[in-house]
Amino acid sequence: NAGVTQTPKFRILKIGQSMTLQCAQDMNHNYMYWYRQDPGMGLKLIYYSVGAGITDKGEVPNGYNVSRSTTEDFPLRLELAAPSQTSVYFCASSYRDRGAFFGQGTRLTVV
Amino acid sequence: AQTVTQSQPEMSVQEAETVTLSCTYDTSENNYYLFWYKQPPSRQMILVIRQEAYKQQNATENRFSVNFQKAAKSFSLKISDSQLGDTAMYFCAFMKPSGAGGTSYGKLTFGQGTILTVHP
C-alpha cells in the first residue's frame, strides 16, 4: 500500500506565484488534512475534509484553498505565495479515532 | 481550545539506555486520545503509540511505553533500550473523539516537539 502520497517533495516559488500541492491516499479514509510545520514548531492545521465535497478551515487557513472531489484526492492550492508560507507541508488521512497517517511532506520555499 | 506542551526542546541518551520524554496538555474534555509521533531526519511522521483517555492501562508498543496520568494531564513517553534509529523529533498530540456526536473529525493538536539524539 502506498498510504498517503504527496507531490512534489520540494519546491521553490517566487513571491506572487501560485501552485497546487497534490495529495492522494489509497486507504479509503474519509478524513483528510493539511498541516504546516514551521521550524522548531509543531504542526498546525490548515484545512481538513470529512468526505468528498466537504471541507472546512483549520487553525491557519489564510492564503490557502482546498477542494475534495473524490475520497482519494485532497489538493492544497496556494494563491499569491508569500515568504510567510515558507514551510513544510504535510497531508494526512485518518479513519475515525485511530490517528492520522502522514505523507512524506513538501518543503516549500518562497523567495 | 486544547493546548499541548512539551517542555524539553532537546534530549540525549546513550545507546541501550532508557529515556523519558515529557508532555502535558490542557483540556476540559473527559474523553480524548493522545498520541506520540516520531519524525526522523527523513521528515516522515510516524505514529508511535496511541492512548485512549478512558483506559487506565498505559499503552505499550515494543520498546515504547507511556505513563498516562489523567488527573495531572501528563502523558510521557518512555523509550527503553534506545537505538540509534530512535534519533528523531518526537511530537505529542491531542485529539477529541470523532464518533458518537463528536466533531473533532480526527484533528490533532500538536506540541512543539522534542529532539532526541541517541549517542553510540
Keywords:
heterodimer, A: 111 residues, mainly beta, seven-stranded mixed β-sheet, four-stranded antiparallel β-sheet, B: 120 residues, six-stranded mixed β-sheet, 12 strands
Structural class designation of chain A: mainly beta
Helix content of chain B: under 10%
Strand content of chain B: over 45%
Mean pLDDT rating of chain A: 95
Oligomer: heterodimer
Structure, explained:
The complex is a heterodimer of chains A (111) and B (120). Chain A is mostly beta strands. Helix content of chain A is 0%, strand content 50%. In chain A, strand 5 and strand 6 form a beta hairpin. The relative contact order of chain A is 0.34. The mean pLDDT of chain A is 95. Chain B has no helices and 12 strands. The mean pLDDT of chain B is 94. In chain B, the strands form 3 sheets. In chain B, strands 2, 5, 6, 10, 11 and 12 form a 6-stranded mixed β-sheet that branches. In chain B, strands 3-9-8-7 form a 4-stranded antiparallel β-sheet, with no helix packed on it. Chain B starts with a strand and ends with a strand. Chain B is globular, with a radius of gyration of 14 Å. In chain B, a hairpin with a 4-residue loop joins strand 8 (64-69) and strand 9 (74-79). In chain B, 0% of the residues lie in helices and 48% in strands. The chains are: A mainly beta (111), B mainly beta (120). Chains A and B meet through strand 4, strand 5, strand 9 and strand 10 of A and strand 6 of B.
Helices and strands, with pairings:
The complex is a heterodimer of chains A (111) and B (120).
Chain A: E1 4-7, E2 10-13, E3 19-25, E4 31-37, E5 43-51, E6 54-57, E7 64-66, E8 76-78, E9 87-94, E10 101-102, E11 106-110
Chain B: E1 3-5, E2 10-14, E3 19-21, E4 24-26, E5 33-39, E6 46-52, E7 60-61, E8 64-69, E9 74-79, E10 88-95, E11 109-110, E12 114-119
Parallel strand pairs in B: 2-12
Antiparallel strand pairs in B: 1-4, 3-9, 5-6, 5-10, 7-8, 8-9, 10-11, 10-12
